[in-house]
Amino acid sequence: MSAGGGTKAIIAALGANLAIAVAKFVAFLFTGSSSMLAESVHSLADSGNQALLLLGDRRSKRRENRKHPFGYGRERYFYAFVVAVVLFTIGAAFSLYEGVEKIMHPHNVESPIWAFAVLVFAIAAESFSFRTAIVESNAIRGTTSWLNFIRRAKAPELPVVLLEDFGALVGLVFALFGVTMAVVTGNGVWDGVGTLMIGILLAIIAVILAVETKSLLIGESATPEIEEKICAALEGSPEVTKVIHLRTLHLGPEELLVAAKIAVEHDDTAADVAKGIDEAERRIREAVPIARVIYLEPDLYRTTKATT
Asked: Which residues cross the membrane (predicted)?
């Protein structure tokens, strides 16, 4: 996976979530807390999600063929979308069900020390995973705000891991709140309230991920900054007088299709035009290395004069 894919962040999150899932389930067996059960399923779902992201990266590296002439780069978008679906159907739906069930049929939390110990351990482990995702993201985020980074990133893995880890940390706080209130008040309804809060949080994160990855899956253009670089590279070629129109499409996080109609001089020979196109393609790839597929159509630029 490329630097933009955040392999280190995914592996860190996978290891943390597997360990946390086991610890939370053990705590559930000792306490009977629905918040702990919801958090166990949450961590297990997150572990499966990280495995899906790694699988998507591996499958995206397959070579192009006759059926898929532009390769399999969008596999990463597909598996990121599947992650959003899994987070909603397994994580959110299960937590919402358990929360409602526990509120309707409450029971006291047994051996709460187990729940508190596991939650503290889980918060520490998730904090490490979240910090790794932040460090990996900062390496490519630059001065972009976190909101814009999540919305505009073309590699889906880091935004997914960031939101998952953020949701996991907040979910742990909700679980700690529910268990603490249930123990202090002696009313098991609070445990169900904490579980319900976890479910609502996961549903919100799942919807955000689904919306963003759906946009990538359908097909997004390059950022305005990248398109400006492409136009500058084209118009910097001596044989190109103007970019008439430009279209870009991400075939994958690090694969960009560029299609442009360019204006050439009317007295250029075919050899001059061919040479100019070759030079323009070279300049584009130099300015934007991810521009892997380039189609340039030469034309004569005509201005329409207004008639009186």
From this structure: 9-30, 77-97, 113-134, 160-183, 189-211
